[in-house]
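Handout, section B. The chain below has 114 residues.
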Amino acid sequence: QVQLVESGGGLVQPGGSLRLSCAASGSIFRINTMGWYRQAPGKQRELVTSITKGGITNYADSVKGRFSISRDNAKNTVYLQMNSLNPEDTAIYYCNTMPPRDDWGQGTQVTVSS
């Protein structure tokens, strides 16, 4: 069974930073592009950023210049460094392959509020 375990979320003030981590099963991590997705209250889940096995990255316009995705292939882990957070970034953040598999982890809540 594929496992995706996200962590690192929390409550942060506007302008603050957080670093999310996602530990993935080796069977999917090694061969796939990985992505971070988010779902804000009342909205559909959206792709925020992705990274190929070779390290090529893409970002949604809304996070470009503020978020940075990276991966450690030896640890089967993908990271999301989030800087200059604003309230519009409040959401549950998930990692998955890109395109996503049907299996999703529990996500990690990020709340940006003063």
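Note. The longest strand covers residues 18-24. Compare this with the example in section A.
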